[in-house]
TrEMBL record:
Pfam family of the protein (one): SET
PANTHER family: SET DOMAIN-CONTAINING PROTEIN 5
Signal sequence range: none
Protein name in the entry: SET domain-containing protein
Coiled coil regions, renumbered to chain: none
SET domain: residues covered: 11-150
Amino acid sequence: MALNPRASAPRPFKVVDVPGKGKGVVSTRAIQAGELVLAEKPLFTAGLVRPEASLAAKVAQLSSVDQLAFYSLSIAPPSTCYGPHRARFDTNALPLGEDATEAGLFPVGARFNHSCRPNVSRFWEEAAGEEWFVASVNIPPSTELTIYYNALDSPRAERQAYLLRTLGFKCTCERCDLAPDEVEKSDQRMRFYAQIEALIPTLFAEPHKLVTLAKAGLNLLAEEGLHTGAAALAYDAFQGAAFAGDKEAAKAWATRACELKVRETGREAGSYKRMESLAADPTRYNAWGFLGVKRQVPRP
Ligand SMILES: [Zn+2]
């Protein structure tokens, strides 16, 4: 079963030395937004409790080529207190999905450096058992491809503290390097965004408010130049419209969610296809018209 036919095509990037960052990933041709640039199965996975001996045993079972890939991975300063296997795993592993306790080691994916305004989205595609890396924007040739490690939607001080604590580096990405007044504006946007994220789950009986807030959240992400999380907000707005039984608005929000989701998952992901089917017929949503009375909500 070929879930991702492009995975076997030549990769549109190469792994190179990036000054000041060790290894990094650079595009070898123009890459379009929504293009799957890498789909990779983990060398192995581990849970939150991962003693050195159990990781060493997993590595010992790998082929010699995979062992070489493992031992060539870097170790971040905060992980040097662990044994060589745990240290490499903690430095390089990615969680298998949002809020997952299981993490996987992706030897090529581990070469992507972090940016707080990444040009590549990553996510765990459960059906394929792979981590997918998708271009969020059109990327010119010879451009570094970046992903986020964590804390993308926090104020700068929180993002930097997290990266310093867990990976031992001070982020100097374009968003962290803004002028002080721009940083203040960015931080305010992220604080407002956090409030919106907290409020939305409480508003499903008030679809007009919910959609209005989701729309405000989308504007904040757009101003911030962030793509991760945008499709989820448009989906929240879709749900508000669906609860209210506003078919026209629901269709428009599902269509908007698809446009945004392409930049996070590409068109081949299962979650994208589910969104596409809701855009074709929003009344397929399992809680369609949940509020019982038809109400109008804002359009995108
Ligand atoms: Zn940064």
